[in-house]
Each structure stands twice: as structure tokens, then as C-alpha cells.
Design a protein that fits this description.
alpha+beta; single chain; 2 domains; about 45% strand; about 150 residues; Nuclear Transport Factor 2, Chain: A
Length: about 150
């Protein structure tokens, strides 16, 4: 799981990732078929490629989604921004108990290998807290940053 999250992070942050031909399509038929099957109705699709995989960024039902495919067309992982109302009840309950003085700034849902995790950024008057939440409800702190 950590490997998939690392791959997702690297793929998103790599500034040297090459755009696929026109950014709207790619030459890999297997990947395109898999994408069209998995995400029928996707809009505003942009493609990027790395040496190992393809990344599609698109909008689906008003959500911004990122999908990672290997060169054989297998869907590796997806991520999307979600609202707090879309978090599992056990996660939101623990957040409210453990961080009552902080508000949710944003949430990214990651789905890889059948596991769903959430990266939640909380904001207080003095700092930012970045958490990893499992769908089971467990929380762990990834970063705590002081505001300037």
C-alpha cells in the first residue's frame, strides 16, 4: 500500500512527466480501452505519461479524479477530492473527537489494490495537520506544519 501511495505521489509531482501526444489521447490502445470501460462519461480528460505508466486526470460527476494505468491497461490506482460528508462515519467521528479545534481544509481519497485511504488536511489558527485515515477508522499523522 505504501508503495502505491509513493507511486501516486511521485507520478503527480513529477514535473518532467511528458504529455501524451496532444494531452487528450494516447497511443496505447489497451490503456484507452480500459479507461473508456472504467470511466464512461469522463469529461475534460488530460493524459500524462511516465516511463512506467499513464496518468489520466479528468472530471466525473463534478469530481476531479486521477487514474493511474500500467502499460498493459491495468488500473493501478485512483484518487479524487471528496467532501467531509463522503468520509466513512467512523473516520469523521474520530476526527471530530481527536481534532475538535481544527476544520477540514481538504480530503483526497486514494483507492489502490482494493484498499481505500484518505489524506486529510486540517487547519487550525496556528498550524496545518496532514493525516492519513484508513477506511477502518485508524488515523496517523503524516505532517504538522506551523503557519507563518
Amino acid at each position: 500500500m505504501k508503495k502505491i501511495i509513493a507511486i501516486l505521489t511521485i507520478a503527480v509531482l513529477v514535473t518532467s512527466a511528458a504529455f501524451a501526444r496532444d494531452g487528450k489521447t494516447i497511443d496505447n490502445k489497451k490503456v484507452m480501452e480500459s479507461f473508456n470501460k472504467e470511466f464512461a462519461g469522463a469529461a475534460d480528460v488530460s493524459w500524462y505519461s511516465t516511463s512506467e505508466n499513464y496518468v489520466a486526470k479528468f472530471t466525473m460527476k463534478a469530481s476531479k479524479v486521477t487514474a493511474h494505468f500500467d502499460r498493459e491497461g491495468n488500473l493501478l490506482a485512483t484518487s479524487r477530492y471528496i467532501s467531509d460528508s463522503e468520509l466513512p462515519l467512523n473516520v469523521i467521528t474520530k476526527l471530530m473527537k481527536k481534532y475538535p479545534d481544527q476544520k477540514i481544509h481538504n480530503i483526497v481519497e486514494y483507492d489502490a489494490e482494493g484498499n481505500t485511504t484518505y489524506v486529510i488536511t486540517l487547519e487550525s489558527n496556528t498550524h496545518w495537520t496532514v493525516l492519513k485515515a484508513e477506511s477502518t477508522g485508524s488515523l496517523s499523522t503524516l505532517k504538522k506544519l506551523e503557519k507563518a
